[in-house]
Amino acid sequence: MPRLTIDDLKKLREQAAGTITLRSGAARARVTIHMGTCGIAAGAREVMAALLKEIEAQGVTDVIVTTSGCAGLCSREPMATVELRSQAPVKYVNLTPDGMVRVFRAHVLGGEVVTESALAAGCETTG
Amino acid sequence: MAFRSHVLVCAGTGCVSCGSFDLGAALEREIASRGLADEIQVVRTGCQGFCAEGPVLVVQPDEVFYCGLKTSDVATLVEEHLLKGRPVRKLMYTPPSAPAPVPKLSQIPFFAKQKLVVLRNRGLVDPERIDDYIARDGYEALAKAVTELTPEEIIREIKLSGLRGRGGGGFPTGVKWATCRQAALHRGVEPVIVCNADEGDPGAFMDRSIIESDPHAVIEGMAIGARAIGARQGFVYIRHEYPIARERLAKALDQARDYGLLGRGILGTKFDFDISVVQGAGAFVCGESTALMASLEGKAGEPRAKYIHTVEYGYKNLPTNLNNVETWANVPLIISRGAAWFASMGSGDVSENPWNGSSGTKVFSLVGKVNNTGLIEVPMGITLREIIFGIGGGIPRGRAFKAVQTGGPSGGCLPATHLDMPVDFDSLTAAGSMMGSGGMIVMDDQTCMVDVARYFIAFLTEESCGKCIPCREGLRCSLDVLTRITEGKGEEGDIALLEEMGAVMQDACLCALGSSAPNPVMSTLRYFRDEYEAHVRERRCPAGVCKALITYTIDQALCDGCHACVTACSTGAITGQVKYPHQLNQSLCIKCGACLDACKRNAVLRA
Ligand SMILES: Cc1cc2nc3c(=O)[nH]c(=O)nc-3n(C[C@H](O)[C@H](O)[C@H](O)COP(=O)(O)O)c2cc1C
Ligand code: FES
C-alpha cells in the first residue's frame, strides 16, 4: 500500500465503512431470510447467496442481511422480510434467487414493494 | 462476497486466558464445515470489558451477547444462531437477580450504563487491522491537525476541552503541552513526547486494554500531540508483562508507517514523526515521570527531585512531554468533535480554567467483591453508587458493602457514607483518596481495613526504589507497625506513630511514590479508626480476617454431627462421631475458615 494522502484516507474510509456499519447496527435496511428447516429445504440458502452476491456487486454497504427461524408459513418458503428504516416490514414468499434479486433492486434500493411476491405488509406483534 | 454477519470474539487478555483463541478457531472450523465461511466473518477484538464472564463474543448485526462459552458450545451456536437465526438463550448472559437471560448487548445493565469515548471502538474493530480503525473515522483528526490547524490551535482546543491527565496526577494536558512547546522553542531544541504505558497498579488493566483493543487511537493521539508540541520523536514505555498489547502495538505502528501516517512527510505534508516502543521491566516506580525517563535512557529507574520539570529538562535533557495511554487516546476525538463536546461531559465548569472541573470520561477496572468485574468507561462525576451497584451489579452473595479503594496502591479507601460522592479528580482527593489511573477495588464486610492497609504498604515497601530515606525507612517501619497490629501485638501509641510517619513522608519524600504512600493508612485511619483500636486495645479483628485474633469454636448445642466440617478441614483439627457434636482442636487449627463455610447449621462460630 502506498503512503496515503488526505484524499486517499477519505477514500479508504468510505470503502471500509460498510464492514463496520454491520457491527455497529447503523444500517438503512435489513433483509431477514427465514432459515428454518423448511426454508433451507426449499432453497433459502441459494436465495441468501444470490442476495449477498447482488449486494456485493452493487457495492451497497448499509444493508444488513440476517437469518431467522421458520416464519410459520412453511408451504410458502423460501421467505424473506424486508425492513426499511422507519417503515413497516414486508414479507415475501416463494422466493427464487432471481426473485430475491428483483426484490432487492426494487424494494431495498428503489423503495417500491414488489407486490406480486409480497405476502402482506406488517408483522405479527408479540407479547 | 460481502459478509452478512460478524462474530466478534473477544481476544483481550482476560478472555484469552479462558480459552478465546481456541474458541475462535473452533468457530471458524464449524462455520467452514457448514459452508458459511463466505457469509460469516469471525473477527478478533480487544477486551470487550466483561472479563468476569469470559470468553465472550457478540454476533452482529443482531447484537446478541454470549458469554462463558466453551468450545463444546460452538456447534449449537453455529447451527442455531448463525445458520437458522435462532439466538441460543442458554448461552446468553443472565444478570444477577434477573429472571431470564438478556440477549442484546445494549440491554445488559453492565453495558447500557457506560459511556464509551476512549473505548468507542472496543469490540467493534479488529485491533490488528488499520482499515477497521479508519472506517470508524480513524486518523481523520490527524488529517485535520496537520492541514487545518496550527499547533497553537490544537493546544487551545485541548486546553478548552479541560482534558486532565489520566495517569494519576490529573494535570491539565493542554497546559503541559504548551509549556513543553514553549520550553523547546525557547531553547531551540527538539522536544520529545512519551506515552506512559507502565501501568504498575496491582489489579489495574485500563491501559493494557486500550492498547489491546484500539492501538491506533493512542498512536493517532500521539501524532497529534507531536504536531502541537513540535516533536519528531515519540516513545511508548510499556511493561514487558504485556505481551499481547506490545505485539498489537508493534503491528499497528508498522501499519501506520506503511500508510504514511507515521514517518516522514505524514499525509503528504512536511510533518515528520515516528514512535519507538521501549520495554520496561515492570517496576512500579518506573511509572513515575523522572524514573521513567531515567529508565528510557538506559539508567536505573530511580526518580530525581523535580525542582526542574521534565517538560523543560526530561529525556536526555530535552523538553519531554509525558502523558498516560488513556490521555493520548482521548486526543483524536477532542480534535475531531471539538472541545465543547468533550467539556459537555463530566463535572465542573472548565471553560475558564481546566483545574475547575473534570471533563470527559474515565476508564476504570472494576474488581474485588462486586458481581460484574471488568473494564468500564463512565462519565466523570458519576457517583460511586452508580458504578458499584448500577454497572457492577452490587456485592456478591448479598453481603454488605464496606469500602471502595480507588487510585491504586497509594490511593485511599472510602466508606459507605461516600457512596453518593461524585467520581472526579477533586472530590476524590478531598475525600482522602485519589483518581489515580483508575483502579477500583470493592470490599465487602468480610474485609479488615487494617489488613488492607498492610497489603498496600507491603506492596509499596517492595516497590520503593530506596533512594530517599523517608520513603525507604518510613515504609518499612509502617509495615512493621501494621504487621504487629494485625498479629495482635499492637501497642498503645502505634496509631499515633503511623500518623506521624505518614505526615513526614508526605512532606519529605523525593517522589510521589513516597509522598502518596501514607494514603492507604491515613484514609483507613480517617474512616475506620475504630477497627485499628479494636485490634490494638481489644485484641479483636472485627471483620474476622486477622488470623492471630480469631478463634473458631463449635457450638455443641447446634452441631448435629453431620461431619461436613470434618471433610472440609485440611488439618484434621475437627474430630467427632457422626450424629454427635464434634470437637475442634485449637492447636491444629490454621484458621482457614473452611469449616465455617461447610457448616449448614451455623454451628461453627468465629470470634
Ligand atoms: C510511583 C508512581 C507510579 C506511577 N505510575 C504511573 C503509571 O503506571 N502510568 C501512568 O500513566 N502514570 C503513572 N504515574 C504518573 C506519572 O508520573 C505522570 O504523572 C503521568 O504519566 C503523566 O501523564 P498524564 O498527565 O497524562 O496523566 C505514576 C506516578 C508515580 C509517582
Ligand atoms: S478480555 Fe474479554 S471481556 Fe475483557
Protein architecture, described:
The complex is a heterodimer of chains A (127) and B (607). Chain A has four helices and five strands; from the N terminus they run αβααβββαβ. Chain A is of the alpha+beta class. Chain A has one domain: Glutaredoxin. In chain A, strands 2-1-3-4-5 form a five-stranded mixed beta sheet, with helices on one face. In chain A, helix 3 (44-58) packs across helix 4 (97-109). The longest helix of chain A has 19 residues, at 6-24. Chain A is elongated. In chain B, helix 11 links the parallel strand 6 (233-239) and strand 7 (274-280). Chain B has a five-stranded mixed beta sheet with strand order 12-11-15-13-14. In chain B, strands 2-1-3-4 form a four-stranded mixed beta sheet, with helices on one face. A four-stranded parallel beta sheet of chain B has the order 7-6-5-8, with helices on both faces. In chain B, helix 6 (140-147) packs parallel to helix 10 (215-229), helix 7 (151-161) runs antiparallel to helix 8 (173-187) and helix 10 (215-229) packs across helix 13. By secondary structure, chain B is of the alpha/beta class. Chain B has five domains: 5-111, Glutaredoxin, CATH 3.40.30.10; 130-352, Rossmann fold (3-Layer(aba) Sandwich); 360-444, Ubiquitin-like (UB roll), CATH 3.10.20; 449-537, NADH-ubiquinone oxidoreductase 51kDa subunit, iron-sulphur binding domain (de novo design (two linked rop proteins)); 551-606, Alpha-Beta Plaits (2-Layer Sandwich), CATH 3.30.70. Helices cover 39% and strands 15% of the residues of chain B. Chains A and B meet through helix 1, strand 1, helix 3 and strand 2 of A and strand 1, helix 5 and helix 6 of B. The complex binds flavin mononucleotide (FMN) and FE2/S2 (inorganic) cluster. FE2/S2 (inorganic) cluster (FES) binds next to helix 1 of chain B.
